[in-house]
């Protein structure tokens, strides 16, 4: 089973029999043909999950996704399907086989501890974490990485159908956030499911990709939003524990977590009161490109406290005047 190369950019591989050498191939990938991929996570992109990092199409030291955007990093060889919070991961989200095939390798038992935190294990030569490798017809392979410890539901030699459960999204291996890293290969070469015939170029997306159901290439968006009584800590936002019930005599704060922000984008944060009146209308431009960012805005309680009733918050990411992501949320003031 080949390891993800997202940490080092160098191919490493392992099978159930032991370590094997990764090979650098120069052959051109096959076209999409009849091979198709079902979405491999039990979630809806843009709703309860999002595509965080995509395949790197820059052959040099830089990084670009298939559309020449910033949703990639140097050497990233797959597609990262991320959950918005640790709470979502802990609730359990299934990873499913993207195509029918035979399990060539599986690993379980690695701890779900993000790299860079206390107690994080050494994952050298095990960057994929808990994972599964499946071979398909005509030289295709799919690899599923960073799954939860104790969740792997298949073993070497098992035959799987499209949609069969392989495990759950986790935090094992070389990862800092809960996600599935999906790598697709044809004849041993990694390819981008959004642009399988153009691994080293970017630009206009091809008419043919590998997704069985059309999946728009993400441009950025909003992954999480909530109300609080103070600007929350970033770690609490990522964990999914930042939202706090409003209090009439406390500040009213709305926060948002965004992905794929680019320099010049605008973050908009607004709140409407119980009668539809504007309570907050905040906007700010982004001064740099960021894969993941957090913003919050709010107001102190007015004299006499906030009126009771339902408050509606909207968090929006805008690019060149067009909305590319939005999340709405409501809360009741006692």
Automatic annotation (TrEMBL):
Lipid metabolism listed as a keyword: no
Gene Ontology terms for molecular function: metalloendopeptidase activity
Limits of the M23ase beta-sheet core domain: 76-193
InterPro entries: Cell_wall_metabolism_enzyme (IPR050570), Dup_hybrid_motif (IPR011055), M23ase_b-sheet_dom (IPR016047)
Origin: domain of life: Bacteria
Keyword Signal tagged: yes
This protein's UniProt keywords: Signal
Pfam families per UniProt: Peptidase_M23
Alphabetical list of SUPFAM superfamilies matching this protein: Duplicated hybrid motif (SSF51261)
Name of protein: M23 family metallopeptidase
High-level lineage: Bacteria, Pseudomonadati, Pseudomonadota, Alphaproteobacteria, Rhodobacterales
């Amino acid at each position: 089973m080949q390891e993800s190369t997202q940490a080092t950019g160098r191919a490493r591989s392992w099978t159930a029999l032991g370590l094997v050498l990764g090979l650098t191939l120069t052959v051109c990938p096959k076209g999409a043909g009849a091979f198709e991929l079902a979405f491999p996570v039990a979630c809806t992109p843009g709703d309860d999950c999002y595509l965080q990092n995509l395949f790197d199409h820059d052959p040099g030291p830089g990084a670009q996704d298939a559309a020449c955007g910033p949703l990639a990093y140097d050497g990233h060889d797959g597609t990262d399907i991320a959950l918005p919070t640790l709470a979502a991961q802990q609730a359990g989200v299934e990873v499913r086989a993207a195509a029918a095939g035979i399990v060539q390798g599986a690993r379980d038992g690695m701890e779900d501890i993000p790299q860079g935190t206390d107690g994080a294990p050494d994952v050298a030569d095990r960057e994929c974490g808990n994972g599964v490798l499946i071979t398909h017809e005509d030289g295709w392979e799919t690899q599923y990485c960073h799954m939860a410890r104790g969740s792997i539901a298949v073993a070497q030699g098992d035959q799987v159908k499209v949609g069969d459960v392989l495990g759950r999204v986790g935090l094992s291996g070389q990862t800092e956030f809960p996600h599935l890293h999906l790598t697709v290969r044809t004849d041993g070469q990694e390819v981008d499911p959004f642009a399988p015939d153009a691994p080293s170029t970017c630009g206009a997306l091809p008419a043919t990709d590998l997704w069985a159901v059309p999946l728009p290439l993400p441009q950025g968006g909003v992954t999480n939003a909530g109300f609080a009584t103070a600007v929350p800590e970033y770690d609490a936002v990522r964990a999914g524990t930042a939202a706090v019930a409003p209090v009439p005599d406390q500040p009213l704060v709305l926060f948002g977590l965004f992905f794929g922000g680019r320099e010049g984008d605008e973050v908009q944060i607004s709140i409407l009161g119980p009668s539809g009146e504007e309570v907050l209308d905040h906007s700010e431009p982004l001064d740099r490109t960021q894969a993941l960012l957090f913003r919050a805005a709010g107001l102190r309680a007015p004299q006499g406290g906030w009126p009771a009733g339902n408050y509606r918050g909207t968090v929006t990411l805008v690019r060149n005047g067009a909305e590319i992501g939005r999340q709405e949320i409501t809360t009741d003031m006692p």
